[in-house]
Amino acid sequence: MDHAPFILAAYGITALVFASLVIWLIADGRIQRHKLEALEKAGVSRRSTGRPQA
């Protein structure tokens, strides 16, 4: 029995899923960074910066 097609298909699907997750994480990181920049421009600050609250 030759299992090569099944194994190659499994590796291919796994590679596609992994690549999709990496692309999604990169895109989501950029979106979150832009949202954070917009909040900081609006005057909202992070509590972790150590600056006193107004």
Automatic annotation (TrEMBL):
GO terms for cellular component: plasma membrane. The keyword Plastid does not apply. The chain crosses the membrane at residues 6-27. Its main location: membrane. Keywords: Cell inner membrane, Cell membrane, Cytochrome c-type biogenesis, Membrane, Transmembrane, Transmembrane helix, Transport. GO terms for biological process: cytochrome complex assembly; heme transport. It is a single-pass membrane protein. It is found in: Cell inner membrane. Pfam families: CcmD. The keyword Cell membrane applies. Required for the export of heme to the periplasm for the biogenesis of c-type cytochromes. Belongs to the CcmD/CycX/HelD family. This is Heme exporter protein D. The lineage of its organism: Bacteria, Pseudomonadati, Pseudomonadota, Alphaproteobacteria, Hyphomicrobiales.
